[in-house]
Amino acid sequence: MIRRATTFNLAVAIRRPQSAVFALLSDIQDFEPIPRDAAVRMVKEPAGPTAVGTRWHEWVRLAPGCWFHTESVVSDFDPPHLLGMDFSSHWLNGHLTYQIDTFGGGSILHHRETVRSHWLLRWLLPAITHSMRPRLLQRLAEIRQILESGCAGGSTAHTS
Fold it and tell me: Is the whole model's pTM more than 0.90, yes or no?
């Protein structure tokens, strides 16, 4: 049973077109870990173009020998504007939407995420979300840096 939820609504301006931002997000596993100091393993299934139903299996190291496992599945897909996914773990679940708007010569990447805790952990949600916000802001800054430095291709080959 899910009891409590927290919502993040963050955004970052990126001096790259929507298609480049969307391409990076569609193959984010190729650029992990983001933030760079995170210990992350991520596998996309199936390999190839992202579409509704694409899954990511993600492991984040919390401490030596302690990994947090999350499953994500693409639920919203409208290139190059929108990529949404539902995610779940033993402790949390929720929905993440990346919306990419054109702005000037680049894009605005909106990160909207709702995180829900299972009822046994509802008392931990404030601490969890307090620690998540700076990591999400760092993640968005590093996504911008990767894109603006030219380290990410700009392929628009992803299909729905």
Answer: no
